[in-house]
Amino acid sequence: MSATYSIIIADDHAMFLDGLTSILSEEKSIKIILTAKTGTQVLKYLRINKDEKIDLVITDINMPEMDGVALNQAIKFEFPQIKTLVVSMLEEAKKIKQLTEANANGYISKNAEKTELLNAITNILEGDNYFSPRIKQVLMEAMFSEKSSPEIALTKRETEVLKLIAQEFTTQEIADQLFLSKHTIESYRKNLISKLGVRNLAGLTRYAVEKGLLA
Amino acid sequence: MSATYSIIIADDHAMFLDGLTSILSEEKSIKIILTAKTGTQVLKYLRINKDEKIDLVITDINMPEMDGVALNQAIKFEFPQIKTLVVSMLEEAKKIKQLTEANANGYISKNAEKTELLNAITNILEGDNYFSPRIKQVLMEAMFSEKSSPEIALTKRETEVLKLIAQEFTTQEIADQLFLSKHTIESYRKNLISKLGVRNLAGLTRYAVEKGLLA
DNA sequence: TTTTATATCACGGAAATCGGTGATAAAAGA
DNA sequence: TCTTTTATCACCGATTTCCGTGATATAAAA
Prior knowledge:
The structure is a homodimer of 215-residue chains. Chain A is α/β, with parallel strands linked by helices. Chain A has ten helices and six strands; from the N terminus they run βαβαβαβαβαβααααα. Chain A folds into two domains: 141 residues, Response regulator (Rossmann fold, 3-Layer(aba) Sandwich); 55 residues, Arc Repressor Mutant, subunit A, CATH 1.10.10. At the A-B interface, helix 1 and helix 10 of A face helix 1 and helix 10 of B.
């Protein structure tokens, strides 16, 4: 890295943000332009300072207001020349997939060593992408498992009924709430059971909980 | 802080560890003796270097092998003169309570600002304890809520049955598995429903999932 | 030692779920 | 336009759950 690069860091954990800043401020070739706690702050800055040359935005996934995925999409749409590196605790295949689809240039875990972080940054600034081996593996597994277990798509109504079922309402009560026949709800219940491959109410409830339908 | 203090930092997230190290190495009065990724590494070091004066151990809660709570207990038992500061993402009342019972000298969130971190360290090194306002609040709430909603204690058998219920087994199947009468399992089911204040199988399942009985 | 908690079993009836096999109309997609 | 999906409703029988009201023996606690 011979030239000087301008970067922005976004993370809602102040201490991690400070830590990252501290680590990177040791690098002479890196100039930290801004540190932010939300994606919106970053976007706001970029829009106001359109002419400033920013090379890289380092971001977490979990942030209030606007999360890492949305921030990535926005940056790549409005400022496609800016590279992005996601640094997160999460190793959820879904999120990682969303990020690759949003054209993030790299993804490393917060578990990563300092050297890997610097390595990732160097790679990205030089035009390559960087995804840690572990992340690549998660992505691969996700792609395979996706084929073996095709996404179970529930309709709006099915989701609605499932939610109520998991909330301990009986068929009759759900029918009353939705102004539908008891038989209709029974149909949904049966369809859900066979669609989701579960045996009973317990299975439906677990599915609902795991998919975060209750909150 | 006039004198020089010797501290040890333990956190399994390398980047956070690096960040923290980086922040603290700016402080002239602080000398970082060791950084470790597990509690056992810290203890091993302390045992070998019995005569070295260590003032403070900064630790995360979630670590492999030996977590922050266990590390705290061990340190306070074997090296009671060493102060401890817990820096964690978690704000679970249970963990925090355990830590206060293990005589940790301070607890701050990873969301805390750098200034709060330094403030906490200074306080602790000077002999005070430091718990951030947010943490104090969580502790208070926990103490109150404990009285208002007494812990629902399930017996071994009840837990066992509940687990199987949530795993979609019918009463008869559970009875067969545990070599008990179908009536017995029915009793457990009824007791569980009234004990946990839920209405049906869905409620039982949700409770089981939320308590992490399935894994 | 007396009381309480735990673990076990039993009956009966009402209510709900489960499983199969339908139908119809409207909306969406090819 | 034709086909598929979605949303709705219906019947029936078997199984399961839910609810109340019990009992007994043993272990733990007061």
